[in-house]
Amino acid sequence: MPRLEWQAALKALAGFAIGVAFWLMASPLYDRAIAASAQGVMRAFETPKVTRLRPADDNYVTVDRSDFDPRSKRPAISVRDLTFNIVLLIALFAASKRTFSDRNIGGFLAAAAALALTHVGATIVEVMSIYVAKLGPWSRVHYSDFDRNLWGVAGHFYRLVLMYAIVFALWWTLRDPAAPAAAVTAKKKKKR
Amino acid sequence: MLACYDAAGPMQRAQVLFLAKFFGVLIAAYLLIAWNPVNDRVIVPFTEGIAVASGALLNAMGQQVTVQGTAISSSRFGVNINNGCNGVEAMLILLASIVAFPATARARIAGLLLGAVVVQLLNEVRIISLYLLGAYYPRLFDLFHTAVWQIVIILAAIAFFLVWSARVAPTRVASRA
After folding, report:
1. Is B61 exposed, middle or buried (0-12, 13-18, 19+ CB in 10 A)?
2. Cβ pair B157, B119 in contact under 8 A
3. Which of B1, B4, B5 to mutate to test the interface with A (most CBs of A within 10 A)?
4. Which of A155, A40, A176, A20 is nearest to A96 (CA)?
5. Whole-model pTM?
6. pLDDT digits (tens, 9 = 90+) for A49-77
7. Could you state, in order of their start, the residue ranges of all structural domains in chain A?
8. Beta-strand runs (E) in chain A
9. What is the 3-state secondary structure (H, E, C) of A16-55?
10. Dihedral, CA atoms, A144, A145, A148, A152, nearest 10 degrees?
11. What proportion of chain A, given as a percentage, has pLDDT over 90?
12. pLDDT (tens digit, 9 = 90+) per residue, A105-153?
């Protein structure tokens, strides 16, 4: 394996460790911001505006609707489980040959902003998955089988692979051209 | 430099093509494995095989575990291997990226086979370490289960793809230069 890739691996490892620490520390605040944004988007499309996403103390967000029976138990989602792919993004950008170049930092910030939008989308999908399938007779009355399949598949697809594929695509698009594989390829080309 | 590697300036056509193929293959492969007959006849037996191998390794390490279907358990702790913990997610990312990247069919097949072996070997380490964490350091289990190992497995798959693509790309660079 070329020496350059060992350096990239070490940088990725450091980025991974920093990413985990950052994610653990920032999650409580970040998850609140994502929940508030998701609530805003959902209410913008609701008539009447009934959805409320209330952050709880245990890293969960309670899904509430003002038209629910006040005596019924409220479901909750873990926004944290939807956002940990930021660690992968940090590790990938850290592996760049020029980690702190303007190009790499700019690419990372743009990718992180785009990723935050996908986190809002994933939270909405998670809430809709609850609405369409997990509220017993209420779900059956208000949503069709097509809705249940659509939101169920969307939620499962995001959690299984899409959350990683989005990060990979953002990094692939916005990375510094001196990222590991590109540099190695250029080096081999020169030798020829 | 080959266009698909060049992220400078406006997105190149080859890069757009790579991403379009990547997501196309990913969606098709996901829909295939999420289809109940494929899930029941391929994914579940495959996951049971992983559980059997992990159980055998844990028993060889002195842990007295029993395996039932996709579940590994002992008097200390138990884990159930579901989708997302069987390495299939990383194999899908690898499949989509290798198929989307311009290469010969032979190089793709070799990359897919070797990549699948790498991912699954690492996944065995994940399952065994998660069992041991759950049994002896339960406070760390959630963190490692939810975030750490998921990211490590995907990072390994991406790293494998980058090494593979760097090795198969020069011939194309030479032929186009």
Report:
1. exposed
2. yes
3. B5
4. A176
5. 0.88
6. 999 999 987 789 999 998 888 888 889 99
7. 3-182
8. 51-55, 61-65, 76-77
9. HHHHHHHHHHHHHHHHHHHHHHHHHHHHHCCCCCCEEEEE
10. -160
11. 73
12. 999 999 999 999 999 999 999 999 999 999 889 899 999 999 999 999 9
Distance, in Å, from the CA atom of A189 to the CA atom of A170, rounded to the nearest integer, reads 26
Calpha distance A173→A167 (Å, rounded): 10
Q: Which residues of A touch B83 (CB under 8 A)?
A: 160
A174 backbone dihedrals φ, ψ, rounded to 5° = -105, 0
CA B124 to chain centre: 11
| 3-state secondary structure (DSSP) of residue B37 | helix
The residue in chain A having the minimum alpha-carbon distance to the alpha carbon of residue B177 is A189
Closest partner CB to B89 (pick from A2, A160, A172):
A160
For residue A67, the surrounding DSSP H or E stretch is none
Q: Write down the residue that tokens 């370490």 correspond to.
A: B129
Give the Cα separation of A112 and A150 in Å (integer). 27
Looking at the DSSP assignment, which residues form a beta bridge with residue B80? B71
How many Å lie between the alpha carbon of A75 and the closest alpha carbon of chain B?
20
**Among all residues of chain A, which has the CA nearest to that of B161?**
A181
Calpha distance B109→B105 (Å, rounded):
6
CB atoms within 10 A of CB A181: 23
Which residues lie below 8 Å from residue B153, measured CB to CB, with a gap of 6+? B87, B89, B90, B119, B122, B123, B126
